Amino acid sequence: MDSQYESKEVKLTVESAAGADAQAGELVEKSFWLKTRKWIRTIGAEELGIERIPEELRTNQRASDLFTIFFSANCNTATLALGFLGPTLFGLGWWDSFCCLLFFNLFGALVPAVVAPWGPKMGLRTMIIPRYSFGWWPAKVLAILNCVNQIGWAMVNAISGASVMYDVGDGKLPLTVCVLIVGLLAVLLGLFGYKVLHFYDRYSWIVMVICFIIVAGFGGKHFVNIPMGSGGIEASSVLSFGTAIIGFEVAWLPVAADYGVYMRSDTKSLTSFSWSYCGWLSSQLFIELLGAAIGTLIANSDPVFADASGIGGLIGACFGAYGSGARNFGKFIEVLLGLSCVAVITTNVYSLGLSVQMVTQKLLVVPRFVWSSIGSVIFLAAAMAGREHLEEVMENFLLICAYWIVPFSTTFICEHYIWRRGYKYDLNAWNDRTKLPHGIAASIAWVIGTVLGLLNMSQHWWVGPIAAGIGDSPYGTDISWILAMFATAIIYIPLRMWEQKKYNNFYVTSLPESS
């Protein structure tokens, strides 16, 4: 944050925390957390949390920063690992993996991209905005779920980076150490907050793109054109892989607006949407396609690839097939690829701290920096515990994200485009429960949509009854996100009309729309 804004930022933070409730005010008066905030400012970290960012604190930040932060955050081995699941876990060939990644990403990237412009327009963090549809208490439940979401993703991302770095040591460097190297570096950057995240992501993607191009170049002639399947099992695999892709995309929605709150409110929505959509789509699509290509190496009969284990081993084998000199160069590339997950873990750590503050007003007085630190310890412990099971952890977590986030995002977006067109929000009501809806309609629709998603879930440890009856796969067919999305919209719209008419607590203040 620029120095000219620092004094205003401190004043805003303390006033917001003190105004949360009497107890928070007493804590501020005791000055413990006030001193903590001053220390945070001294080391150059962002001091503000979920407080609305007023216009006087906005900067001339470019909308293109939304492209670089989302592109960089997805330019990593976790994205590579998602594409890798197509041939290795879901049993798809090259061209059916290609089609799944293309079409599901084209649609899935729209979901977080439509929310990204709301940050500049309203100056509110993403998970605060659901208060205008879910109301005060249900929004807290969503904040808790997002805390779990960010810890889980930080865990997945750390393991994916560590699994590639592990291959560098030929098994001699413990995987636990690899997890710590990736995780601790990401935590260090994530704790500093908004400005540092944008600065790092503005440039880190350049190195990573070069590394992925090198991997593609060395592996190209070894990739295998695994033939496309057919029949009921193929259809089940395509839909289940599609659910994983959608889960990967929609998992960004709960944080999509967090990274534009310091942009000026006159930033055009179409501009910020376009930069965001291109950032998500281009990074995920092309790197996932490379991951699918690497996954086809499991069908390569060359002993170099047959003896390789996991995505890290197969990447190493791409270089090893050219001799020891290329293998040593490949180790250097793998180190950089292992560190690629730093860019995305930083966003997990940052947004986690914000979501914790939303759970209760008593936590608002405690700086985001502190909650991000605590969350970092939790995710590092979880990542070290699950370090040997990347594919299983990733598959389960991706699908679980789709089960609850798809109905949530459907409700969230319906509210905005049907009832809040033109940004009709009373922005002074973000922390005033008396001026927020009761959340009856949103809560009912979300619960029913989530339950339907669970009934359609297809996991190795449990297959929902509806999913089990679709297709020929022994694990059923996962169509959870499709059914949940349509059911949630059909239920929510009439219920919201009833709620608005009955309680008449729909407070709005139109914002100027410049797009």
Structural commentary:
Keywords: Membrane, Transmembrane, Transmembrane helix, Transport. The protein has a domain at 62-401: Hydantoin permease (Orthogonal Bundle), CATH 1.10.4160.10. By secondary structure, the chain is mostly helical. It is globular. It is built from 23 helices and no strands. The two termini are 27 Å apart. 56% of the residues are buried. Helix 13 packs across helix 20 (390-419), helix 20 (390-419) packs antiparallel against helix 21 and helix 21 (440-455) runs antiparallel to helix 23.
Topology:
Blueprint (H helix, E strand, L loop, with lengths): L5 H13 L3 H9 L1 H11 L21 H11 L2 H12 L5 H15 L1 H6 L2 H5 L8 H4 L1 H33 L6 H18 L1 H26 L11 H20 L18 H27 L7 H4 L3 H11 L3 H15 L3 H18 L8 H18 L4 H30 L20 H16 L9 H4 L11 H24 L12
Task: Kindly name the structural category.
Answer: mainly alpha
What best-fitting shape do the alpha-carbon axes yield?
globular
Characterize the largest beta sheet: strand count, sense, and whether it forms a barrel: none
What would CATH call the class of the domain at 62-401?
A: Mainly Alpha
| CATH architecture classification of the domain at 62-401 | Orthogonal Bundle
What name does the CATH topology of the domain at 62-401 carry? Hydantoin permease
Order of helices and strands: HHHHHHHHHHHHHHHHHHHHHHH
| Helix share, percent | 55-70%
What's the total count of β strands?
0
> How large, in whole angstroms, is the Cα Rg?
23 Å
Task: Name the beta content range.
Answer: under 5%
End-to-end distance, in Å?
27 Å
- Our count of helices gives 23
Mean pLDDT: 84
Give the low-confidence spans. 1-30
CATH homologous superfamily placement of the domain at 62-401 = Hydantoin permease
